[in-house]
Amino acid sequence: MSEASETVFSRILAGEIPCHRVLEDEHVLAFLDVGPLSTGHVLVIPKEARVHLHELSDDSAAAIGRVLPRICRAVMAATGATAYNVLQNNGSLAHQAVMHVHFHVIPKFEDGSGLGIEWNAAPLVEGEALAARIRENL
């Protein structure tokens, strides 16, 4: 497992950097992104310092899973958004910029603000063999 080194999120958790908190409990902190893609863009981070999602403890992962729907509902109610993206990146190759697990809740609006995505889909190849390899690793 890779413990996150000091990041802007660890400094926020330590109280060294202020943030606009929207939810906090024993395992999770959610706060407004200071560089939002749209109004209401919220970051949800575990208090457990891990770089990648697959490294989180079951308790931290479950805590995030419990709060994400609540945060999405609250963001929609507060902003009037009817659509949103939940984004989570793992590793710099996947565009992770802060090396501490975090989820983005990004409202999407008719004016185009929010997350833009280019989806470069390809045909599924060797699906049964790949599914079997994944199952073996569960």
Q: Level of helix content?
A: 25-40%
CATH structural architecture: 2-Layer Sandwich
**Contiguous runs where pLDDT drops below 50 for at least 5 residues:** none
| CATH topology tier name | HIT family, subunit A
Largest sheet: 5 strands, antiparallel
Total count of domains: 1
How would you sum up the global shape?
globular
- Annotation field: number of helices: 3
- Give the percentage of residues in beta strands: 15-25%
Structural class category: alpha+beta
Number of distinct beta strands: 5
Can you identify the CATH class?
Answer: Alpha Beta
Q: H/E series, N to C?
A: HEEEHEEH
Give the name of the CATH superfamily.
HIT-like
- What strand line-up does the widest sheet have? 1-2-3-5-4
Rounded mean pLDDT is 95
Can I get a quick summary?
The chain is 28% helix and 18% strand. The protein is α+β, with helices and mostly antiparallel strands.
Please give the structural blueprint.
Layout: H1 8-13, E1 21-24, E2 28-32, E3 42-46, H2 58-79, E4 83-87, E5 103-108, H3 127-136
Antiparallel strand pairs: 1-2, 2-3, 3-5, 4-5
Description:
This protein is α+β, with helices and mostly antiparallel strands. It has a single domain (8-136), classed as HIT family, subunit A, CATH 3.30.428. Helix content is 28%, strand content 18%. It is built from 3 helices and 5 strands; from the N terminus they run H-E-E-E-H-E-E-H. It has helices spanning 8-13, 58-79, 127-136; strands at 21-24, 28-32, 42-46, 83-87, 103-108. It has a 5-stranded antiparallel β-sheet, with helices on one face. Strand 1 and strand 2 form a beta hairpin. The radius of gyration is 17 Å and the shape is globular. 24% of the residues are buried.
